[in-house]
Design a protein that fits this description.
- The chain is built from 12 helices and 12 strands.
- It is of the alpha+beta class and 390 residues long.
- The chain has a single domain, classed as Peroxisomal Thiolase, Chain A, domain 1 (3-Layer(aba) Sandwich), CATH 3.40.47.10.
- The strands form 2 sheets. Strands 1, 2, 3, 4, 5, 8, 9, 10, 11 and 12 form a 10-stranded mixed beta sheet that branches. A two-stranded antiparallel sheet has the order 6-7.
- α1 packs across α2, α3 packs across α12 and α9 crosses α10.
- It is globular and about 60 Å long.
Length: 390
């Protein structure tokens, strides 16, 4: 079997949903900017692309009408390049990468532009018209367990204390603030011209820095927050991922062809796996997806140098880290979604960009991207840094 190389991995900075710099920017315009940057950095002529695969969790309104095709045209890609929108909810951005890679491995395509986008400012959680299936609600009400309640269930079922959740959340902010100050995200972020409505008129604003991390967050401040999900609960807004806007993209190519053409290779995809778990504790997904992906790559957990695990909630992320026996220093070293935000369909591609640039920067060899998925799933992918000396 061949290998799939990642030639470039780019993202926008992440905006705060509903009140941040990206709140008025159309997601298809935001994605178009990121797609252009990914192709430019890969140095691949756009006409060489065989497909564009984009993930989004809420494919309607401004993210509807096959947002992948709309954004590809807005990015100036040739009409000859087709496009597809996929949805695996919180793993949509990673699923798009896996789907593009699978086509390359099958020999059907040579180069694919993949990624994800989500404007949680413009598309409501659950869509513009949520409509649970009545029959499923009657027989499997757990299928629609609210996300905050799933986090509370994980915390209570597995003994994740409020103090530990708050400490985990504080560390996420501290790591993200330190990463921004050190310029660690510079290589993965492309500047976006955001359209902002201020003082009764529209204006364009250059946007290139994540808005979520809080340098002033303290354990005392986090400890004062009450749970909005459950009376006397332990999960708060401070220990939950932020509602966010963002886009990310990668260029994938057959590794042998990339090497033959002397194209820069940022990383190599080694494995991708998904699992199903009980929907009412959907947050446990990474605990089961990560070992499955690592085994599929012919590796062990001890071989993995870095992990980017989405922090949907502190309770579930912390439990997964503990159950897998991971070194906390290797997990989300530049902060996670509690600080940086979780633009649903974008997150998988955002985590991939962050991981690949971190592997290259540190000289580490293997890394894992993983997340839990609403509805009861988990996904994970293993990447290798071909430039590693380890």
């Amino acid at each position: 079997m061949g290998e799939v190389a990642v030639l470039s991995a780019v993202r926008s900075a992440i905006g705060r949903g509903g009140r941040g710099t990206l709140k008025d920017t159309r997601p298809d315009d935001l994605l178009a900017t990121v797609l252009r940057a990914a192709v430019a950095r890969a140095g691949l002529p756009p006409e060489r692309l065989d497909d564009v695969v984009i993930g989004t969790a809420m494919p309607e309104a401004e993210q509807g009408m096959n947002v992948a095709r709309i954004a590809a045209m807005a990015a100036g890609l040739p009409d000859s390049v087709p496009a597809l929108t996929v949805n695996r909810f919180c793993a949509s951005g990673l699923q798009s990468i896996a789907q593009g890679a699978a086509s390359i491995l099958a020999g059907w395509q040579t180069a694919v532009l993949a990624g994800g986008v989500e404007s949680m400012s413009q598309i409501a959680m659950g869509g513009q018209k949520p409509s649970p299936n009545p029959g499923l609600m009657a027989n499997r009400p757990d299928a629609y367990t609210p996300m905050g309640i799933t986090a509370e269930l994980v915390a209570s079922r597995y003994g994740i204390s409020r103090a530990d959740q708050d400490a985990f959340s504080l560390a996420s902010h501290q790591r993200a603030v330190a990463a921004i100050a050190a310029g660690r995200f510079k290589d993965e972020i492309t500047e976006v011209q955001a359209r902002v409505f201020r003082d009764g008129k529209w204006a364009e604003v250059s946007f290139d820095t994540d808005e979520g991390p809080r340098a002033d967050t303290t354990l005392e401040a986090l400890g004062k927050l009450k749970s909005p999900f459950k009376e006397g609960g332990s999960v708060t807004a401070g220990s939950s991922s932020q509602v966010s806007d963002g886009a990310a993209a990668v260029v994938l190519m057959d590794h042998a062809k990339a090497k033959a053409e002397n194209r820069p290779v940022l990383g190599v995809l080694r494995a991708y796996q998904v699992v199903g778990v009980p929907p009412e504790i959907m947050g446990v997904g990474p605990r089961f997806a990560i070992p499955k992906a690592v085994e599929a790559a012919g590796l062990s957990l001890a071989d993995i140098d870095l992990f980017e695990i989405n922090e949907a909630f502190a309770s579930q992320a912390l439990w997964c880290v503990r159950e897998l026996g991971l070194d906390p220093a290797k997990v989300n070293p530049s902060g996670g979604a509690i600080a940086l935000g979780h633009p649903l369909g974008c997150t998988g591609a955002r985590l991939t960009a962050t991981l690949l640039h971190a592997l290259r920067r540190s000289g580490a060899r293997f890394g894992v991207v993983s997340m839990c998925i609403g509805g009861g799933m988990g996904a994970a992918a293993v990447f290798e840094n071909p430039a590693s000396t380890r």
